[in-house]
Here is the input.
Amino acid sequence: MNQDTHIINLEMKISYLEDFVQQLQQVVLEQGAALERVMAENRHIKTKLADMAGQLEGDIPNRRPPHY
Here is the structure.
């Protein structure tokens, strides 16, 4: 294998690696966006549950007395 062939093979490998890194970066960006959406939805659900718990607090008949 001569030096030119070796250099061409290395350049091809670098090209494939660059493409692979770009694909990985795209996947990471998509997953980050999906994670942000899930976190926002989680915050919304937590807020809604807290509001519902506050509304139902007066309707619970078998609640422990405060001295327990």
Remarks:
- The CA atoms of residues 49 and 59 lie 15 Å apart.
- The mean pLDDT is 89.
- The longest helix spans residues 3-56.
